[in-house]
Amino acid sequence: MTSTAAPEPGHGLRLIEITKRFGSLVANDAISLDIVPSEIHCLLGENGAGKSTLMNVLYGLLQPDGGSIEVDGVPLVSRNPKQAMAAGIGMVHQHFMLVDVFTVAENLILGRERSALLDLKRARRLVRELSGRYGLDVDPDAKVEDLPVGIQQRVEILKALANDARFLIFDEPTAVLTPQETDELITVMRSLRDEGKAIVFITHKLREVRAIADKITVIRRGKVVGQADPSESEAKLAELMVGRAVSLQVAKEEPEVGPERLVIDGATVVAPNGTVVVDDLSLAARGGEILCIAGVQGNGQSELAEALIGVAPLAGGTVILDGKPIQQLSPRRRIDAGLGYVPEDRQHDGFVGTFSVAENLVLNSFDEPPYAKGLSLNLKRIDQNAAERVGEFDIRTQSIKESVASLSGGNQQKLVLARELSRPLSVLIASQPTRGVDVGAIEFLHQRLVAERDRGTAVIIVSSELDEVAALADRIAVMYRGRIVGIVEPDTSREVLGLMMAGVPADEAMASASVISASEEDAILDAQLADQAGPDGEDQR
Q1: Where is it mostly found (predicted)?
Q2: pTM value?
């Protein structure tokens, strides 16, 4: 770890012992932070560590319970984002704050109107000026709904810059981007830094932190636990985040692939607004393998998973489980047929927060033997099951009678997985299985998913985390706008996967990546030859 000198008095943005409570939970515990111009300051920590809460206090979305904020040595009280923006603070939110049916220029001018008449000509000129200055390349007359996600994020950045922001907060900005869009964002952030902007980059992704940070502050459970140098290894950064050494590698043997257990043929799902979100999709998952479905969020992965378990209706197509069609079955009957499901939103769909640990562990079988006989529950057997699962899955709880709502995110996810794996499965569908989970719990969850594969289950994982996909997958299917654009091997490069996530078919993506790689090799060779040449261009060897 490294220590960093404080900025000169009156220079930059300073958070002094900021404390924020939500009831008995202390989300920020006397956090002090210095944010200075021409620097990218990464706030690294697990989901729930308090990073976003701290920035929401700074941006005026939340009010602190203690501490103070200074801008250039002057106390700042921002009771709302408008006051924060007036002080030069801008925020690029993880979930975009854009009006889809408006153009870029119209979105830029919202909230900045000087009269009843909108000066769209001035807004267009401002978009072009800022786009050119920072290499953002955004069309002022394009409708937001027609723009790729990466360009929409550029619009969010333009909105902050249009307000003369000197301090820019990026809250988990790469969550919805392809690898190529992430690289482009990093280039933009460096450009902003070089222009003298102060950048705060909130993330839990170690690869990105090491690529871009000038300074790293690590937050754990609401407290600053130290600062780290960007040259630190990912393993060291993970240890700082969690408080103990963790393995970032997934240990698994080659799969022993069996027959097809789930076959999807021509599946179509239509959203309530009439949009086709899964479009004539066909896919098969085999026993003894992990099939990862990758893609940028919002391309139909969530709707596909919900349709497979039966909580979203199929508008067309069939789903065959172990040779039998299940598309007409209720979710409960699909579960009885051998389908396991870890939902994307565990708090909404995965458990009942007010129920106990023991009760949640039998939610899908509480009315069957051995947990029930007739109308009577076998409470002793329910408690015995809970004790076994808590031990097996290392669920950290004070008591099996404790409500699940009181558990940490990682322990809640362990509980959901423990319940699904407590019975023989043909297919396990796990949607975003490690979202909002600390690195230590991720290590455990990955091990259990691999173990389930090795039992002969077909494991389907829907994930937007490319590192997770690469670590777990035996095959990778990439989704784009409701369709599978290709199925590739797990050692496929991030460049190829990124192109596929942007809609490029697998064979074209591989060809494009090969051309790029060849060009890079040529550039390296040219540089080496130039180094070997003398002042007159002659080879000096």
Answers
A1: membrane
A2: 0.73
